[in-house]
Structures are given as C-alpha cells and as structure tokens.
Write a structure and sequence with these properties.
281 residues; alpha+beta; four-stranded antiparallel β-sheet; two-stranded antiparallel sheet; 47% helix
Length: 281
Amino acid sequence: MASHSVQPAASATPTRRQLREASRTAPAVAAPADAPAAQPAARRGSPLARWGTRAGVLVTLAAVTVAVPLAQQPAGGEETASEEQVDATLPSTVEALTATSAAVLPPASLLAGDATAVRAQVDVSRSQDREILPGCSGVAGTDSANGQLPESDLCYLWDGSTQIRADAAQALAELNAMWVTRFGTDLCLSSGYRTLAEQRAVKAQKGGLAAPAGRSNHGWGLAVDLCSSQTTGAQWEWLNEHAPVFGWENPAWARPGGSGPYERWHWEYTKGVMADGEYYG
C-alpha cells in the first residue's frame, strides 16, 4: 500500500514563512534599478501578496478621495459666515441698476464747495416760477378813478419803469416769459399806466391819436404800447397768435378798418377792459 504524505491543514493565521514572503514582495514593487532580480513567479502570485498590494492601493485611493476635497473646502462655519457677509454687502438689483458710478462724480471737495451756489440758483429759479413778478400779488382793486390808481393796485414790469394794474401785469409777465423763450429778449415797452396829468400831456401832443383824459385805458392800468420794432414781421405774427391766450389783444378799433386810429402798438388786457375799463367792442 502506497504511502501518502499528509499535508498540514490550512490555517487561517498566516505562517512566518508567508509573512516573510509578503514582506519581501512589498519592497520588490518599488525596488531601485540595481536591486536583486524579482522573486519567482510563484511568490509574486501568492494570495497574501496580492491582498496586501490591493489593500494598499485601496487605502491610498480612499485617502486621496476624502482628503483632497476636504482640503479645498472651508469649514462649514466659515462658509456660512462668508455667504452671509457677501449677501449683506451685495446691492439689490434696483440699486445696481440705478447707482451712479463713483468714477463720474466730481471730488467730494468740489461738491462741498459748489453745493451752496447750486442750491442758491435752484432756489432763485423756483422763486421766479412761483412769483413771475417779484412783489406783485396779481390782485388789484377796482374802486379807484381813471388815472388815480393807488400804488398798491399797480405793479412794475420787467423793465423796472413801466407800471400797469396788478392782474394785467401778471398776465403780461407770463406772456413775456413765453416771448423770451421764443425770441431771447423781453418784450419792448414804450408806455403803460398814465395818470390824469400824463393823459392830458399825451392828448396835447398827439391830438386825435389819443383818447380824452380820463377815458384812456392807460388810465386804468389796462393798456401798454409796444415798441414799433415788434409791430411787423414774425414778432407781430407771433403776438397775434399767442397774446390772446394770456388775455392781451390789439383791440379791434386799433386795427386796420377799425373805429379808431390805426395803432398796432396799442395792446389791452381784454378781460379787465370789459369789466372795468373803456371797452369799444
């Protein structure tokens, strides 16, 4: 009967020989060029050696996969604080669209120095809008006699010398503002309110071209005479088109074919004349 050699049963615990072979296999992978020749194929292919190699690779990959993202990402508390700070400092959409770039603004020193002058100019402009004739209320009494109007019923016009009744002055000043916008200069005036004495003097000088003293609408502060340069051409046409909007007209009797002398320069505040003056239809 043939004899059979009995192999020792495999043990779950590696033997010393297996451990030595595993320790030899690991350095052989990274051995330098002048190292001894590689171990035999039987040793390289042992299960324990393959397990050790694979385990090392898996551990390295796991370390890289976990460690690299953690190194690149800040801590959770820092990230939350950073986002809150950024949100607090970012402008809203409306602010971003309406904000003025600081690069186009003048230096703060210049703004501080010029602000007072700019505000003063704006205040003056607004004041002129509110009160087109400074000191003129636009309200006049109607209980005075022709040529005897009190100063309280009269207002000085823009030339500083011509006076007419306050309500008529306010309307004429508004017309003048529109005139200035169109032609760049004020309306030129040659005459306004006339006292009784002044009416007599004009009547004596012009005869039939002037109304009798006490019957002139100049005596009521409701008429002005314009300079002759404004009674022809584009300016004359402009006046006839726009002056009635403000209540001022060259009366029918003063036009060609009218009942009175031909006076293109003579203009009256129609509303006032119809109510309180000498209206000749």
